[in-house]
Amino acid sequence: MSKLLTITPSPHIHQGDSVDKIMYRVIFALIPALAWSFFVFGLSAVMVTLTAVLACVIFEWLIQKFMLKTEPTIKDGSAVLTGILLAMNLPAQIPLWIIILGSLVAIGIAKLSFGGLGQNIFNPALVGRVFLLISFPVQMTSWPNVTKNIVDATTEATPLALVKEGLKNGTPFNEIVADLPAYSELLLGKFSGSMGEVSALLLLAGLVYMLVRKVVTWHIPVTTLGTIAIFTGILWLIDPSGNADPMFHLLTGGVMLGAIFMATDMVTSPMSKRGQLIYSVGIGAITVCIRVWGAYPEGISFAILIMNAFTPLINNYLKPKRFGEKK
Amino acid sequence: MLKTFKIGGIHPAENKLSAKKAIEVLPLPKTVTIMVAQHIGAPSKVIVSRGDQVKVGQVVAQSAGFVSTNIHASVSGKVAKIDTLIDSSGYKKEAIVITVEGDEWLETIDRSPDLISNINLEPKAIVDKILQAGIVGLGGATFPTHVKLSPPPGMKAEVLLINGVECEPYLTADHRLMLERSDEMMVGIQILMKALQVTKAVIGIENNKPDAIAKLSELSKKYHGIEICPLKVQYPQGGEKQLIKAVTGREVPSGALPIAVGAVVNNVGTALAVYEAVMKNKPLFERIVTVTGKSVKNPSNFLVRIGTPVSQLIEAAGGLPDDTAKVISGGPMMGKAIPSIEIAVTKGTSGILLIPETEGHRKAMQNCIRCGRCVTACPMGLEPFLLMTLAEKRLWERSEKESVMDCIECGSCSYSCPANRPLLDYIRLGKMTVGGIIRNRKS
Amino acid sequence: MSASLIYTIITISSIGVIAAVILYLTARKFYVYEDPRIDEVESALPSANCGGCGFAGCRAFAEAIVKDNSLDDKFCPVGGNDTMSSVANIMGLVAEAQARRTALVRCNGTCEFRPKTSTFEGASTCAIQSMSYGGETDCSYGCLGQGDCCVVCDFDAIHMNPVTGLPEVDDEKCTACGACVEACPKNLIELRKVNPKYRKIYVACRNEDKGALAKKACSVACIGCGKCEKECKYDAITIANNLAFIDSDKCKLCRKCVPVCPTNAIIEVGFPPKKVEPTEVAPSTAEV
Q: What is the pLDDT, as a whole number, of residue A154?
């Protein structure tokens, strides 16, 4: 026979998925929410996204090519995804140079210095965001005014910050909330905040898509959101005037974005289902603690990063149930 | 809700291309190559020499030890040579080459098509006949059947499970056998029940074979003590431990044999071979082989004499397509790629699968993204990503602690890995090395 | 302001003192006597932790020497005789000098001599390939060329030659730690005595198939004909399982066996080119 046969060990068939496909599916799931933010915040949002994506991809290429001297892996889509997620965590009117700095931290420090895709302990986009939040608190918390339906340079505080401020001053929750957009508007995304935070509905649509395409399982998003709802629900029932209600907590801030797209990052979340449950309960609980008692109005990025740090530990101690395990 | 096993599992595309093709008898080849090591355990001892005349069914190599079995001539003719030839393991092993002359069977073999269903042999005699007939597990593992039928002292079989699952994609040999040789198979099951002294047998069949389920359910009214258990389609349900879990709900403890939970599992093909051996005095020298693949002209099921070269099976199914990248002996999940099509059919060859160029190559490996799909897919509840890393780093002690020896090599992990990582390759390496370490420790 | 400063200083200092006391007590309570010679021996060793001595590392080797108080069967191939004599000095023992050894790959099955008959696409390690089947050629004894030996080498002494597809040992760097010997699933690598100028004569084949089969798979395979065995005056060559083997401890490098090999399976390295025409295979004269 002229042609040589190929030999590989079994199995000889493959499901056909690849890392690239998973990454692009997540990006696809993000598109509705991203498009909505373009609609709400206008051209500046497009600029922020473009800058973040390009900066992430270029930094990854440069570092891999010239510092690590390895074959660049920008095609796998993970850098694009990091860029989009970073952009969605930023206010739309942030100076572009800050984004480039954030991208460098996200790709250079949080991802490649740990060994690249799959090796990082912390979610790169979140590390970038938190780095910027701590370094540039003013720019990072100046959100464009959208509730007046006119996008202009005057800034507006997020509902979360308003509630936090109000509760601190002793104003009852129902009075504060009366001045805020209605819940239906919060759901649709007509309030100020970071680019990707605004439309809970479209983020949920992304979740449904990812569940259907089996990119993620329900465990992390549902448990995280559930924990937040239950925890804040208990607090609210104890003291309805001193605490925000669970619906408000779920619809505002980065909870949806965080629970659906950041906490579910495969690399930095536990592998076993039991581990994922513990991980997401942890995220929910820490988020609520920061929101209710902490200095920041929003805490999900810190919560996710803290639980990221626990992931190796959870992976190590929560083994899947072995078949025929000796008791 | 159909029964199935609980941990892990995958559902690859079934591709049962030859499911509707009746079993055809393959014409006799010109020469056959009978490997001396066709089963798990000690290779048999050759008892013929060059130039000897042999008849169909004559013993050519004798069982060498308890875990070993007899091997018979599958054709009549002259022993051309005793040589070392490559087999499906890819290594050269001892083999007997016989030139075919006519088709003369031993006189003791009953060649009539009549069904004989009254079993009047004692269990011991049945087991002995099975040993004499050289019967091994025909599902692919080729474990000598007489060993399975002799439970270790202190253990008692409670139920006999018959594996009609055929969970491997593409393969249809067992399916066709259940449809076309159902009566003989049912008697074979009753013989096995008698040998094990059990009163209950359950045939596990996946739900993608409704015709077989219907036919056997009908027949089971006639055969006392045999039940049919339809199962949800899920790979690797044909694995012994998974089948026991699916049908009885019992979990074989790690490191133990199925008999530890009172179960003995045999393949449907084995049941038929047992019928023929016990009732018809016909040793195991032919088996049903599926020849299939997306580019194969006529995917078929053949009744093949052991030792027939694979090339002849491919020829009979329409020839070797030009775009063939791989030839697999067995199914796509657990079969072995063979380096040459001149390799002979052995007792364990359940199928010949031709894989075209488009699907025959592995994609480039990427970094593990810790998606955990391998963990979700593993039917043994292991962590394949971890076992691969441990094997790469040669951390054998830790591998053992992480139960690498429990792996059944079903390939679900490699199949589902989006990063195309060769998980099973490394786990197998770990298994082999750790197995060696354990054996050294014991001795 | 000053009060808080004072409180801080007091608190921190007292924590420091308490911690120091706890540490001191713990160290006393859990003190384990260790033979000081272990440290001495360890510092005399090369700290390569290669495992070439058969122990889990230099420390384990030092512990074993001190525990047994003998140097029998204990040799550090990396440090060689110098290291062993300084260890012997510390221990007050005598070290037996051993000839230096280096690794040698006994396969010459390059792409030219050994045609490929299949393509392997599994994980690229020799261990996994040899588990899968005999190899990409018809010779199931030869080098698989995936370079497991190079990966395990701690001394950068063995590299794949991209042209031949076979590993090559750098004799200068090789310390005979034996890591490659263990890594090779085909047992192709042997540790051989070093001769002046790294000269060596060896059978570059491990094929145990019958001559014809071996020759068919690889044109430079040893066919076990036994001509070299007859030619050797020093009983250095033995034939077993259709395969010749030259014992480096007995070989005197006379090179007589090289020209008689019909398949050029015997290889000489480090010799000047022969000036005389290769003599005809003279009927055995001086031997026996």
A: 59
Residue B433: the pLDDT is 93
Q: Which fold does the domain C36-91 belong to in CATH? A: 3-methyladenine DNA Glycosylase II; Chain A, domain 3 (1.10.15)
Q: What is the DSSP string of B265-294?
A: EEEHHHHHHHHHHHHH---S-EEEEEEE-T
Task: Tell me the HSE value of B372 on the side-chain side, using a 13 A CA sphere.
Answer: 24
Match 């044109």 to its residue by tokens.
Answer: C219
pLDDT in tens, C189-223: 999 888 888 888 999 999 988 888 888 889 999 99
Cα–Cα–Cα angle for A79, A84, A90, rounded to 5 degrees: 125
**Distance from the A14 Cα atom to the nearest Cα atom in chain C, whole angstroms:** 14
* Same domain for B431 and B384: yes
- Contact status of A1 with chain C (Cβ, < 8 Å): no
* Candidates B327, B420, B428, partner chain C, best to mutate (most C CBs within 10 A): B428
Q: Is A106 exposed, middle or buried (0-12, 13-18, 19+ CB in 10 A)?
A: buried
User: Least CB-CB distance to B429: which of C127, C133, C209?
Assistant: C127
Identify whether B90 is part of a domain: no
Mean pLDDT of C231-241: 89
- For chain A, the average pLDDT equals 88
* Structural domain harbouring B177: 1-25+106-361
- Give the strands of the sheet with B53-54, arranged side by side: B31-35, B92-100, B77-86, B53-54
Pairing of strands B201-206, B226-231: parallel
C180: Cβ contacts below 8 Å, ≥ 6 apart? C103, C148, C149, C150, C152, C153, C158, C167, C189
Residues of chain B with pLDDT under 70: none
Find the chain A residues whose C-beta atoms sit closer than 8 A to any C-beta of B. Answer: 1, 3, 5-15, 17-19, 21-22, 73, 76, 116-119, 266-273, 319-326
User: Is residue B276 located within the same domain as residue B334?
Assistant: yes
Instruction: Return the pLDDT at A254.
Output: 86
CA B67, B68, B70, B71 torsion: positive or negative? Answer: positive
Work out the end-to-end distance of chain C between its first and last CA atoms, rounded to an integer number of angstroms: 103
Contact B284, B144 (CB under 8 A): no
C101-269: CATH, from 3.40.309.10, 3.40.50.300, 3.40.50.360, 3.30.70.20: 3.30.70.20
Please give the single-letter amino acid code of residue A222.
V
Contacts of B369 (CB under 8 A, 6+ apart): A19, A22, A117, A118, A266, A267, B418, B419
Give residue A239's pLDDT band: very low, low, confident or very high (50, 70, 90).
Answer: confident
Residue ranges of domains in chain A? 19-140, 156-317
A6 inside 8 A of chain C by CB = yes
Residue B73 maps to a domain: no
Q: DSSP code of C137?
A: B
Q: At what angle do helices A19-41 and A43-62 cross, to 10 degrees?
A: 150
Where exactly are the structural domains of chain C?
36-91, 101-269
Quick: pLDDT tens for B319-366. 999 899 999 999 999 999 999 999 999 999 999 999 999 988 999 899
Q: Cis peptide before A11, with omega less than 30 degrees from 0?
A: yes
Is the CB of residue A7 less than 8 Å from the CB of residue C120? yes
Looking at the structure of chain B, the number of domains it has is 2
Partnered with residue B83 across adjacent β-strands are: B95
* Dihedral sign (CA B289, B295, B299, B305): negative
Q: C57: left (phi > 0), else alpha (psi -120 to 50), else beta?
A: left
pLDDT at B229: 94
Shared domain for B388 and B335, answered yes or no, is no
Note the pLDDT of residue A1.
47
User: Do residues B389 and B323 both lie within one domain?
Assistant: no
Q: Which tokens in the block code for residue C27?
A: 């160290």
Question: What is the enclosing helix (H) or strand (E) of C202?
Answer: strand C200-203
